[in-house]
Amino acid sequence: MKTTISVSVDKSAKESAQAIAKSAGITLSTLVNAYFNQVAATRRIEIYAPEPMTPKLEKLIGKAEKEIARGETIGPFDNVDDFLAALKS
Q1: How far apart are CA 44 and CA 36, in angstroms?
Q2: Cis ω on the peptide bond leading into residue 50 (within 30° of 0)?
Q3: pLDDT along the chain (89 residues), means of 10
Q4: Is the domain of 45 the same as that of 59?
């Protein structure tokens, strides 16, 4: 038996979720049903809310990206032995 619920959600959150569902080939309704079924089966509510990057982290990532662009990094490695040798040098 199906039932209908009505909830208010942020418009941008709905649009984002709808786009993600569409890219997976499912409807938003199917996505919501799947989450409800997961909650019912596991009796767990899992919500992921990423923290925004701090200015310090943004600066560190920018610095790392510049080092990579200048070729100031080592690797990638094809095997563990090469990686360990690079660490020891």
Answers
A1: 10
A2: no
A3: 93 95 96 96 91 92 94 90 92
A4: no
Judge residue 17's burial from the number of C-beta atoms within 10 Å of its C-beta, 0-12 exposed, 13-18 middle, 19 or more buried: middle
CA distance 34 to 79: 40
31 and 61, same domain (yes or no): no
Residue 60 sits in which domain range?
Answer: 55-88
Task: Please tell me the pTM assigned to this model.
Answer: 0.54
12 and 42: one domain? yes
39 and 10 assigned to the same domain? yes
Q: Which residue has the tokens 């942020």?
A: 10
Note whether 42 and 59 are same-domain residues: no
Query: By three-state DSSP, how is residue 71 classified?
Result: coil
Contacts 24+ apart (CB under 8 A), 29-32: none
End-to-end alpha carbon distance in the chain: 66
